[in-house]
Automatic annotation (TrEMBL):
Name of the protein: Uncharacterized protein
InterPro entries: NAD(P)-bd_dom_sf
Top-rank lineage group of the source organism: Eukaryota
Length: 77
């Protein structure tokens, strides 16, 4: 059951990334690897604020999902 839940979360994350990847700004793409709660997150937010398409990678899928949602909300604001 745990494996199925993890697979569902992984699929959800990949779908979210695919939707975001289809929206690449003229400004370019900023990839941030190793996004954690402090520095990486701040860097990703900075690029999003400057209207870049932001790609983030993190080991923790839950954290990645939360940060993706935060950045998407910031870009809409």
């Amino acid at each position: 059951m745990i494996d199925q839940c993890q697979e569902e979360k992984k699929t959800e994350g990949l779908l979210k990334m695919h939707r975001m990847a289809s929206f690449i700004t003229a400004r370019g793409v900023a990839a941030t690897v190793g996004v954690g709660p402090k520095l990486g997150r701040s860097i990703a937010h900075k690029f999003a604020h400057e209207r870049y398409t932001v790609v983030i990678l993190a080991r923790d899928l839950g954290r990645l999902s939360r940060f993706t949602d935060e950045i998407a909300r910031q870009k809409k604001a």
